[in-house]
Design a protein that fits this description.
The protein contains 21 helices and ten strands. The protein is 54% helix and 11% strand. A hairpin with a 5-residue loop joins strand 1 and strand 2 (23-25). It has helices at residues 41-48, 59-75, 94-103, 117-130, 174-177, 182-193, 195-209, 215-230, 232-236, 240-260, 269-283, 291-311, 316-320, 330-338, 342-352, 357-369, 371-380, 384-392, 407-416, 426-432, 436-445, and strands at residues 15-17, 23-25, 30-34, 53-58, 81-85, 110-115, 134-138, 150-155, 158-163, 169-173. The strands form three sheets. A six-stranded parallel sheet has the order 3-10-7-6-4-5, with helices on both faces. A two-stranded antiparallel sheet has the order 1-2. It starts with 14 loop residues before the first strand and ends with a helix. The protein folds into two domains: 35-180, Rossmann fold; 189-212 and 263-445, Dehydroquinate synthase-like, alpha domain. It has 447 residues and is an alpha/beta fold. Bound molecules: zinc ion (2 copies). One zinc ion (ZN) is lined by residues 144, 191, 266-267, 271, 291, 295.
Length: 447
């Protein structure tokens, strides 16, 4: 299979055995990306033999697609139940998940999530727990999470990703997508830009920790990025064909995650920064910034770190003698940074032991041994200026200050965002090499 030529129709509902030793499979059966796609809902339900959908939207997505969907269902004499979240900003917590259960008809055999991020996460989770399949009616090309299996919810106020299932179908009506707010379109594109750093992070971990890695999945993830970049001028002016192409790229990116069985092909250090900011905005009760927009900005910062490291004159002799940063005050720092979420972060460290001195020693040995391979990875990450240019080409955001992220929050994220997950990235590598603080200082105080 030639991944660089791959289109969606080649992979849907298919499984193949891969050189990486795993069988990759996509459960997602139908993806309908076209002008007027929503009109096909009747025939899709008939084909999949669903009789009683439960349609979930919020007041915005109801207006742009939900109400139309319900009238299409009525026209076709299909019984349904429906719930419209009226919250200003929908928080994906216990209350929201519970309200879905309360409003769902007991005979529901399909959940239809109308929207993007949060609504989909909630429906995906409830679908998995109740073993009722779900469709997505996308209202904006704002995330590559549509075709993924993960549901990011707030459990006791702490962001937790639940492993669930892919949707059975994605319906993306280009007439609807093209009317999405420009920032949501920018967010989808910027989320894909994160591939530049997350795929390099994955390579680092393959080399340093012998982590599972699949070249085919990486190729697919890169392919999704290239598809989006190729139509960026059209995305900027909202051309429907370009928006459709972006949507397809986002779905392919989700499939890459499905193949890998984790978000590895989509989320590395740039996502750690984004999650850190999200947590802090929540504690400070600030209105959230779209996920992809944070990721785009973070990708520029992380590319800067990659650049610093490749400019460093290191050799195996120097590396072998590096000691890890002091951890005397680590727990207090984490409490200050993560506040209510600190306990989870501390527990994660107890479990993963990523900062453990023996593990550090072991990694330093490998880093010294395989430094040449690491340098190749560093060299393959584009310059931050190039990445910023690609973001600017769609009218995107490139600097933290453009979206209200102040210097302190950027600085703290550079130092502590790596603690949010046990995933090895450039941030942990810089910690290993005892450069993290120096580079964070350089990045913030450069002029
Ligand atoms: Zn593979
Ligand atoms: Zn993302």
């Amino acid at each position: 299979m030639d991944i660089s030529e791959m289109e969606l129709t080649d992979v849907l509902g298919q499984a193949f055995h891969c050189d990486c030793g795993r069988t990759h499979e996509v459960k997602l059966g139908t993806v309908e990306i076209s002008a007027g796609a929503l009109e096909k809902i009747g025939s899709m339900l008939r084909k999949d033999e669903f009789k009683r959908p439960f349609v979930v939207s919020d007041h915005n997505t109801y207006r742009v697609a939900g109400s139309k969907l319900l009238s299409l269902l009525s026209e076709k004499d299909i019984s349904y139940s429906s719930h419209v979240f009226q919250d200003g900003e929908l928080i994906p917590d216990e209350r929201a998940a519970g309200s879905l259960l309360m409003n769902m008809h007991p005979d529901t055999d399909l959940i239809i999530a109308v929207g993007t991020g949060t609504i989909i996460d909630l429906c995906r989770f409830v679908s998995y727990r109740l073993k009722i399949p779900y469709y997505i009616v996308a209202t904006a090309p704002s995330t590559d999470g549509l075709a993924s299996k993960g549901a990011a919810l707030l459990k006791s106020n702490y962001k937790t990703t639940f492993n669930c299932e892919m949707p059975q179908a994605i319906i993306a009506d280009v007439n609807i997508l093209a009317t999405a707010p420009k920032n949501m379109i920018i967010a989808g594109y910027s989320d894909l830009i994160g591939k530049y750093t997350c795929l390099a992070d994955w390579q680092l971990s393959r080399i340093i920790n012998n982590e599972y890695y699949c070249a085919k999945v990486v190729e697919l993830a890169k392919h999704s990025l290239e598809k989006a970049i190729a139509v960026r001028k059209g995305i900027d002016v909202g051309k429907p064909e370009a928006i459709a192409e972006l949507m397809e790229a986002l779905v392919l990116s989700g499939i890459a995650m499905g193949y890998a069985g984790s978000s590895r092909p989509s989320a590395g250090s740039e996502h750690h920064l984004s999650h850190f900011w999200e947590v802090r905005f929540q504690f400070e009760n600030k209105p959230s910034i779209l996920h992809g927009i944070k990721v785009g900005i973070a990708t520029v910062l992380i590319a800067e770190l990659y650049k610093y490291l490749r400019q460093e004159e290191l050799d195996p002799g120097i590396i072998a003698n590096i000691n890890p940063p002091a951890l005397d005050n680590w727990e207090n720092e984490i409490k200050e940074m993560y506040r209510d979420g600190a306990q989870e972060v501390i527990l994660l460290e107890q479990k993963s032991q990523k900062n453990n001195i023996e593990q550090h020693k072991q990694r330093i040995r490998v880093i010294a041994e395989r430094w040449e391979e690491i340098v190749e990875v560093l060299n393959a990450v584009p310059d931050p200026g190039q990445i910023a240019k690609l973001l600017a080409d769609v009218g995107g955001f490139t600097a933290p200050s453009e979206v209200g992220l102040d210097q302190t929050l950027v600085y703290e994220a550079l130092l502590y965002a790596k603690e949010i997950r046990a995933r090895y990235t450039i941030l942990q590598l810089l910690w290993d090499l005892n450069f993290l603080k120096t580079y964070a200082d350089m990045l913030i105080f450069k002029e």
